[in-house]
């Protein structure tokens, strides 16, 4: 009788953890990303407790018929695939857990059916995504900024060029020359200094790159 009472109390405690710290399950889908651990548990509530204990766990996939519990460290909670045997349960993160990346600022938000996160990240110009994890930029073909150089590096594509700019102190924009794989950093933007619009005469495949401050709804 004592062991039965202990089991009931433990189950109730695990259920409260799941209710307070996690969203309602999303049935018929499986979350993709980094899997921290895979194990078998007797219930989804026990799987939730294990996720709470494991550093870096942001969600878990649970398979009801055999108790498969996959603890996940997924940065993008929208990367899922259909799987009728699984359900996704996501941890309600708060600002205290520092979810915002790349100098984004955080404010606590109430969760809802349409917003499963318990926080909102306010991203700096050039960053988008729920955690400010996505680089966001635009380009103007055949244009560049003369002078005002802030650095140089050989890169493979415009995204690598703007990533280099993001991580370089003083960089405000960049000129990428596709034909040479060259990334020239600028200490100013096209709003501060006029663009030269016919740079392709000297640098075939050149494009002026700038950080885009407006995020799309999906970003």
Describe this protein with a few key phrases:
disordered N terminus; 5-stranded antiparallel β-sheet; elongated; single chain; 219 residues
Please explain how this structure is put together.
The chain has 219 residues and is of the alpha+beta class. Helices cover 18% and strands 34% of the residues. The protein contains three helices and 14 strands. It has helices at 2-21, 44-53, 158-166, and strands at 26-31, 34-40, 59-63, 68-73, 80-90, 105-108, 119-122, 127-128, 134-135, 137-141, 149-154, 173-177, 182-186, 206-211. Strands 1-5-3-4-2 form a five-stranded antiparallel sheet, with helices on one face. α1 (2-21) packs across α2 (44-53). The radius of gyration is 24 Å and the shape is elongated. It starts with a helix and ends in an 8-residue tail after the last strand.
* Helix content range: 10-25%
Query: How are the strands of the biggest sheet laid out side by side?
Result: 1-5-3-4-2
Low-confidence stretches: 1-17
Which of globular, elongated, flat, extended, rod-shaped describes the shape?
Answer: elongated
Largest sheet: 5 strands, antiparallel
Beta-strand content? 25-35%
**Number of E-type strands:** 14
- What do the pLDDT scores average to? 85
Q: What string, H for helix and E for strand, traces the elements in order?
A: HEEHEEEEEEEEEHEEE
The Cα radius of gyration reads 24 Å
Helix/strand class? alpha+beta
Q: What is the count of DSSP helices, taking H or I runs of 4+ residues?
A: 3
Amino- and carboxy-terminal Cα gap: 54 Å
Protein name: Apple domain-containing protein
InterPro entries: EGF, Pan_app
Keywords: Disulfide bond, EGF-like domain
Pfam family, one: PAN_1
